[in-house]
Amino acid sequence: MSVYRIGVLHGVNLDQLELRDPGHYGGLTLTQLEARVGRFARELGLEATFWQTNHEGEFCELLHRSREMADGLILNPGAWTHYSWAIRDALEIAGLPCVEVHLSAIDEREGWRRVSVIRELCVACVQGKGVDGYREALEILKEALAR
Ligand code: DQA
């Protein structure tokens, strides 16, 4: 069996993770988070590749190209989650199984964070579990890809 390739895409402001409220985001740098997620992936026999951008159009272009580089996706688009119909459409174009992940429990925070424009396209949404949520997302994707 070939190793499934998982693209992990982080959106706007996630490169500043260590400067954000540790109560919501855990205090890790994005590099530390990616190292942990990379380890989770290897433990599960998956191969993770990471991308981050603060530019919405670039995020869309990454999604356009994602099929060449990945079998499944984990998306944490940051605040774009709540309003970017462009990212929603680009995810539809990508056509890959995707799990939405948020470090914080967005459904229990401000009203505007409870909206996700990508949720209907995702296999699952994992939120409020910090970095461990990414492990859960990898497990969900592995199962979805094996089906
Ligand atoms: C986030 C939640 C979003 O509401 C927020 O804008 C982020 C991070 C999370 O991982 O909890 O930037 O996606």
How is the secondary structure organized here?
Layout: E1 5-10, H1 22-25, H2 30-43, E2 47-52, H3 56-69, E3 72-76, H4 85-94, E4 98-102, E5 124-127, H5 132-146
Parallel strand pairs: 1-2, 1-3, 3-4, 4-5
Helix pairs in contact: 3-4
The structure holds 1,3,4-trihydroxy-5-OXO-cyclohexanecarboxylic acid.
Residues 13, 76, 78-79, 81, 102-104, 106, 113 line the site of 1,3,4-trihydroxy-5-OXO-cyclohexanecarboxylic acid (DQA).
Folded structure, characterized:
The structure is a single chain. By secondary structure, this protein is α/β, with parallel strands linked by helices. It has one domain: Rossmann fold (3-Layer(aba) Sandwich), CATH 3.40.50. It has five helices and five strands. The protein has helices at residues 22-25, 30-43, 56-69, 85-94, 132-146; strands at residues 5-10, 47-52, 72-76, 98-102, 124-127. Helix 4 links the parallel strand 3 (72-76) and strand 4 (98-102). Bound molecules: 1,3,4-trihydroxy-5-OXO-cyclohexanecarboxylic acid. The site of 1,3,4-trihydroxy-5-OXO-cyclohexanecarboxylic acid (DQA) has 10 residues, from loops.
Q: Which molecules are bound in this entry?
A: 1,3,4-trihydroxy-5-OXO-cyclohexanecarboxylic acid
Return the domain count.
Answer: 1
Distance between the termini: 13 Å
Low-confidence stretches: none
Taken in chain order, the helices and strands follow as: EHHEHEHEEH
Tell me, rounded to a whole number, the average pLDDT: 97
**What is the CATH-assigned architecture?**
3-Layer(aba) Sandwich
Question: In terms of structural class, how would the helical and strand content be classed?
Answer: alpha/beta
User: How many helices in DSSP terms?
Assistant: 5
Gyration radius (Cα, Å) is 14 Å
How many strands, what sense, and barrel or not for the largest sheet?
5 strands, parallel
Write the CATH fold name.
Answer: Rossmann fold
Side by side, the strands of the main sheet go: 2-1-3-4-5
Any idea of the CATH class? Alpha Beta
Helix content: 25-40%
Per the principal axes of the C-alpha atoms, what is the gross shape? globular
- How many individual β-strands? 5
Strand content: 15-25%
